[in-house]
Amino acid sequence: MPRIFPIYLFTGDDHYLKRQAISKLKEVLLRAGSEAFNFDVYEAHDCLIEEVVKNLYSVPFGSGKRLVVLRSAELLHNHAQDILVGYAKNPSPHSCLVMETSKRDIPHQFRDNIHKHVREVSFAVPKGKQLIPWIIKEFKDRKKTIDVSALNILKEIGDEDIDYLRNEMDKLATYVGRSSNVTKKDVENIIGHNHSDNIFEFINALSRKDLRGTFSAKDKLLRSKKSVPEILGMIGWQFRRIKEAKLMMANGRTYAQTSKTLRVPSFYIERFMNEIKSFTIKEIDRDMEYLLETDYNIKRGVMKGPEALEFFIVKVCS
């Protein structure tokens, strides 16, 4: 049995690898049938830290251990930080605590006080130039090679959405079967031109103030198993790219130069350029303010995620 630390701090924005790591901990720590009793997830902004610690010290059901996940640890207030530092100095031998944050900006004093008591693990998403060797390695692990032309398409997708890329690589490995090589044609057959269609549909409907169309696109995004924070991140990312593109073109850049600089996938250039024409910079700035307000309301527990997203849509479309 691998050594399990009483407290972990998971940092970085690779949520897929974090989920895998937590699944491994569940396999090791929890006995079959005990997950409902011995596994709990808390949101730092929406819980009483005293209850979390009480749960950690409680005796787990059955013969296994207890696993507790505390998300958004960067949002812990000072009182909660002090309580967790106290717990870290004398953790329960029957429990494992995982504190998650997508950022590294844990308050310095809290990090300094708790650092020697926790095992910190970074889960960083490969970006930019890191993507090429990462994709090659992923296919090598699947006993496949990949053509350069196919590799470049996958890199463009990875720059946008790493979780989507992982899913598509799994499909590609299955699709090519016994063949040891993945070609550009394989990528086009499997992925086609449908990647990010839902977010483009969402932004397009939003720009037209089409409330019904935007709600329909929102439902598709949720059905694709995107969480509300992920959807908000995608919307913000697209808004920033549209604004950046408009500023570039206002300064004399061409469509081709703009799309190349922003690394727009070749099969989305036309659609992206249509989105640029749909918004004014003033509208983008206003909608980004609405987006930040929505994110704040979710993190502070003012509104639940789906409700906040719908309120955002109504506000933009009104």
Describe this protein's structure:
There is one protein chain. The protein folds into 3 domains: 7-122, 3-Layer(aba) Sandwich (Rossmann fold), CATH 3.40.50.300; 128-191, Helicase, Ruva Protein, domain 3 (Orthogonal Bundle), CATH 1.10.8.60; 197-317, Up-down Bundle (Zinc Finger, Delta Prime, domain 3). The termini are far apart. Helix 8 (162-176) crosses helix 9 (184-191) and helix 10 (197-207) runs parallel beside helix 14 (269-278). It is globular and about 60 Å long. Helix content is 60%, strand content 9%. The mean pLDDT is 86. 27% of the residues are buried. By secondary structure, it is an alpha/beta fold.
Jot down its keywords:
single chain, 318 residues, alpha/beta, Rossmann fold, Helicase, Ruva Protein, domain 3, Zinc Finger, Delta Prime, domain 3, 3 domains, two-stranded parallel sheet, 16 helices, 7 strands, 60% helix, globular
Briefly note the CATH topology name of the largest domain. Zinc Finger, Delta Prime, domain 3
Name the CATH architecture of the largest domain: Up-down Bundle
- Write down how many β-strands occur, each being a DSSP E stretch of 2 or more residues: 7
Q: Sketch the topology as an H/E string, one letter per element.
A: EHHEHEHEHEHEHHEHHHHHHHH
Summed over residues and divided by their number, the pLDDT gives a mean of 86
Given as residue ranges, the uncertain stretches (5+ residues, pLDDT < 50) are none
Q: Work out the strand percent.
A: 5-15%
Provide a count of the helices: 16
**First-to-last CA distance:** 57 Å
Biggest sheet strand line-up? 2-3-4-1-5
CATH class of the largest domain: Mainly Alpha
Rg from alpha-carbon coordinates: 22 Å
Helix content: 55-70%
Structural class, please? alpha/beta
Main β-sheet, in a few words?
A: 5 strands, parallel
Q: What sort of overall outline do the alpha carbons produce when their principal axes are compared?
A: globular
Query: Into how many domains do the coordinates divide?
Result: 3
